[in-house]
């Protein structure tokens, strides 16, 4: 059974994509419970790394797709119970995938927002944005206003795959 589909947006160079895939391969969640769908401009490059990863790797290359099509066009490929969205510049810590699956607790009505830690050498603006997002998420956890959708774009967020499919079809599958 596939618990988690990692939707990895490939935008950078091949080295960055390879590093991200290697980090996903070094997870505490067994590779048999994970699949990775590569989307974005760099998706076609991912095929070169298929033999280097322990999980199922799918290519969701949608050349010429509009942003909306690119955001939802891969959903038919996702076999995991939950989808986790990451960028190829994220080096996933070894427990990241397990933490997302565990945080859902088997429920179908949850959205999980993970923490993002910029590299120490990251540009000051990147560090500032990440710190602001973390503050927003802490306030929401303490009963404050929920982060807006734009705050969560591709940033270590997971949700039930079925709810995402429903939402993509215009249904009210994601409850608040």
What does this structure look like?
It contains five helices and six strands, in the order βαββαβαβαβα. It folds into two domains: 4-114 and 155-168, Alpha-Beta Complex (Spore Coat Polysaccharide Biosynthesis Protein SpsA, Chain A); 116-153, no CATH class. It is of the alpha/beta class and 176 residues long. The protein has a six-stranded mixed sheet. The chain is 30% helix and 16% strand. The longest helix is centred in the C-terminal third of the chain and has 18 residues, at 124-141. Mean pLDDT is 78; it is low at 171-176. Helix 1 links the parallel strand 1 (4-9) and strand 2 (34-39). The two termini are 27 Å apart.
Task: Please name the defining characteristics of this protein.
176 residues, alpha/beta, Spore Coat Polysaccharide Biosynthesis Protein SpsA, Chain A, 30% helix, disordered C terminus
Amino- and carboxy-terminal Cα gap: 27 Å
Provide the helix percentage: 25-40%
Overall shape: it is globular
Poorly predicted segments = 171-176
Structural class assignment: alpha/beta
Q: What is the helix tally?
A: 5
Q: Give the full name of the CATH homologous superfamily of the largest domain.
A: Spore Coat Polysaccharide Biosynthesis Protein SpsA, Chain A
> What would the CATH topology of the largest domain be?
Spore Coat Polysaccharide Biosynthesis Protein SpsA, Chain A
Per DSSP E runs of 2 or more residues, the count of β-strands stands at 6
| Assigned CATH architecture of the largest domain | Alpha-Beta Complex
Order of helices and strands: EHEEHEHEHEH
Q: What's the level 1 CATH class of the largest domain?
A: Alpha Beta
Pfam families: Glycos_transf_2
InterPro entries: Glyco_trans_2-like, Nucleotide-diphossugar_trans
Domain Glycosyltransferase 2-like: 14-116
Organism: uncultured Thermoleophilia bacterium
């Amino acid at each position: 059974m596939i618990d988690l589909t990692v939707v990895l947006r490939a935008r950078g160079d091949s080295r960055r994509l390879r590093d991200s895939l290697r980090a996903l391969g070094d997870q505490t969640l067994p590779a048999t419970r994970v699949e990775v769908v590569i989307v974005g401009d760099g998706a076609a490059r991912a095929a070169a790394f298929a033999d280097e990863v322990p999980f199922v790797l799918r290519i969701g290359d949608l050349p010429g797709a509009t942003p909306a099509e690119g955001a939802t066009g891969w959903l038919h490929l996702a076999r995991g119970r939950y989808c986790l969205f990451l960028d190829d510049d994220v080096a996933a810590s070894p427990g990241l995938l397990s933490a997302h699956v565990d945080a859902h607790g088997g429920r179908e009505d949850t959205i999980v927002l993970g923490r993002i830690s910029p590299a120490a050498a990251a540009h000051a603006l990147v560090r500032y944005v990440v710190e602001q997002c973390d503050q927003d998420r802490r306030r929401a956890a303490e009963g404050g206003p929920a982060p807006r959708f734009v705050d969560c774009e591709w940033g270590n967020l997971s949700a039930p795959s079925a709810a995402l499919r429903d939402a993509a079809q215009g249904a009210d599958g994601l409850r608040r």
